[in-house]
Design a protein that fits this description.
The protein has 443 residues and is α/β, with parallel strands linked by helices. The protein has helices at 12-26, 78-85, 128-136, 152-158, 192-202, 245-260, 273-278, 281-292, 294-298, 300-305, 308-318, 322-344, 368-375, 380-384, 414-427; strands spanning 29-31, 46-50, 89-94, 141-146, 161-164, 184-189, 231-235, 264-268, 349-353, 389-396, 402-409. The longest helix has 23 residues, at 322-344. It holds the Pfam family Amidase.
């Protein structure tokens, strides 16, 4: 049984039927509600919204039992308001790890979100439902959030496109805060073109967001310009260790593909592997979350309502010392300085795997902390520097599971980043590829 993408956006009634048919088996949408656009006479696109962003007329639960009885919001997150201006149909609210804190798709209140390629495997998280809904064909576009990899990891494990924009280019107003220096909203989509459309629709300055920065170029106008003359750094060292064989082999193919289209490949080892290993961004994000959720932890009744794994991760964050936090930030600044020198010195893009492995089995993922460290090991630190990166599908491994290639660019250079992602998609003949459902797949 499978659901197949078409070349046009499904109208609301077709999306509703798809959700009714598929969602009970993968649990990607926790609040299915079709909200039609204001002008029904104009063509519309359908977007699913992660349930950590406000949508007027729908509740926001943050994936938590604590807020499971919330009433409908009266206002929109900034990005949702911008999509309304594009006459978007909303498909409801997507599943997520509780309080956006975990990379498996586990949720003790709403049940786990299952990977459409193999429901015995994790989706990745925390934007689990957004990725799974796109991969299964319920929708073609969704919004997620990315702090340490929460867009890119599920995009990779579910075989869809996932963009983490430059920190500040997409406003977070009206969205849950996780880490004040690393959060960003980003698109997940069935194709690079749709991810680019969604990014162009939501990015731009917002005075209400203290991290917001001035807007840059739109990505759609240059999407088909290719990569000729572009210098691509193949990241080594820490970012190339313990990679599954099929992922490493396919990434070699992607590198050769870019080279055949005129890109210039450069071997690029990180400046300081040791600092990344010892002062991983995972540590300071743990501490940030512990502070952001401190009010819930102080209230005994609310603390007991938290999922056990999320509560454990918050407690780990509470144990991070000020010196450890400072060391992580100092390491992050060193990585950022190295990247600035790298990009200013002639490297245009970086290439690495999105995840070092394909989707693990649920039975092997009971420890959310350990599984998060494994699947998000390559996304945390680059994301924390604020640079944009995108996970683009690069086919299936020998077991029929999706693999993702990650491209990263300098701050504000989403247009070039998505051009390269589109070149990979086109070169691997993944244009408008079929969706997959419950193990039925097609390359």
């Amino acid at each position: 049984m499978s659901a197949t993408h078409t070349n046009h956006q499904q109208p609301g009634d077709a999306t509703q039927r798809a959700i009714e048919h598929i969602n009970p088996l993968i649990n990607a949408v926790i609040h299915p509600e079709i909200q039609a656009p204001g002008n029904s006479s104009k063509p519309t696109r359908t977007v699913l919204i992660k349930d950590c962003m406000h949508v007027a007329g729908m509740p926001t639960t943050y994936g938590s039992q604590i807020f499971s009885n919330n009433t409908a919001e009266t206002g929109d997150a900034t990005v949702v308001g911008r999509l309304r201006q594009h006459n978007v149909t909303f498909a409801g609210k997507a599943h997520l790890t509780e309080f956006c804190f975990g990379a498996t798709g586990q949720n003790e209140c709403y049940g786990n979100c299952k990977n459409p390629w193999d429901t015995d495997r994790i989706t990745g998280g925390s934007s689990s439902g957004s990725a799974a809904a796109v991969a299964s064909g319920m929708v073609r576009m969704a919004l997620g959030t990315d702090t340490g990899g929460s867009v890119r990891v599920p995009a990779s494990l579910c075989g869809v496109v996932g963009l983490r924009p430059t920190m500040g280019r997409v406003p977070n107003t009206g969205c849950l805060d996780v880490s004040t220096i690393s959060d960003t909203i980003g698109p997940l989509a069935a194709s690079v073109t749709e991810a680019a459309w969604l990014f162009d629709a939501i990015h731009g300055y917002d005075a209400a967001d203290p991290n917001s920065i001035a807007t840059g170029d739109a990505s759609l106008p240059t999407l088909e310009q290719g990569v000729e003359g572009i210098a691509v750094g193949r990241l080594g060292g820490y970012f190339s260790e313990n990679i599954e064989y099929d992922i490493e082999s396919r990434l070699d193919e992607v590198a050769r593909l870019l080279e055949s289209q005129g890109a210039r490949l450069i071997d690029t080892p990180p400046e300081n592997d040791t600092a990344i290993r010892e002062h991983h961004a995972f540590r300071f994000i743990l501490a940030d979350v512990a502070d952001a959720r401190s009010d819930l932890m102080r209230d005994t009744r609310l603390r007991e309502c938290l999922g056990a794994e999320v509560r454990r991760r918050i407690e780990l964050g509470q144990a991070v010392s000020g010196v450890e936090y400072a060391a992580s930030i100092r390491s992050l600044l060193g990585l950022r300085r190295w990247l600035r020198n790298l990009f200013s010195g002639g490297t245009d893009l970086l290439l690495l795997p999105t995840t070092p492995m394909t989707a693990p089995l649920w039975r092997d993922s009971a420890d959310m902390v350990e599984t998060t460290r494994k699947v998000a090991g390559l996304t945390y630190d680059l994301g924390a520097t604020g640079i944009p990166s995108v996970s683009v599908p690069m086919g299936l491994d020998r077991n029929g599971l999706p693999m993702g290639a990650m491209l990263a660019a300098s701050w504000g250079n989403e247009a070039l980043l998505l051009r390269a992602a589109r070149a990979v998609e086109r070169g691997l003949s993944l244009d408008d590829r079929p969706s997959v459902f419950a193990g039925t797949s097609a390359n």
